[in-house]
Amino acid sequence: MSRNLIAVYPGTFDPITLGHEDMVRRALRLFDRVIVAVAIAHHKKTLFSFEERLAMVNESIRQWPGASAEPFEGLTTRFAAAHGGQAMVRGLRAVTDFDYEFQLAGMNRDLAPEIETVFLAPGAGHQFISSTLVREIAMLDGDASKFVAPHVWRRLVEKKNGKG
Length: 164
Prior knowledge:
alpha/beta, 6 helices, 5 strands, 42% helix
């Protein structure tokens, strides 16, 4: 019997980094489909609008037929259930991520026990990359181009220069 295993990878993706792309690629080894759930509204103030973030994610993941991007707001467990997700993918870059992610996984398990949380570690070359650091480096005239896809870097430069 064939199963259609669906995972949801939620986040703000402000912007999507090569680390995020690595997570999607790794998740596709385990699941038939990965839905990258891009938060519409979030408690964080984002550099890029929702539309810009969704466009960058779509461009980054179009190389993988099993990946798609969808907007979401509200509880990720509700989004996952509504889209047939059996798992939520979360990335662990370092020990500092573990405490928060472990608490989140426990709360999500209580809210939706039928949806598993799967922790994936990015490859060694991506473990220190975060959207926050990439944004800060770019806004301070640093070169963070090696941490994001070329199309994302162009948008960061445009944003910094007031053109985006």
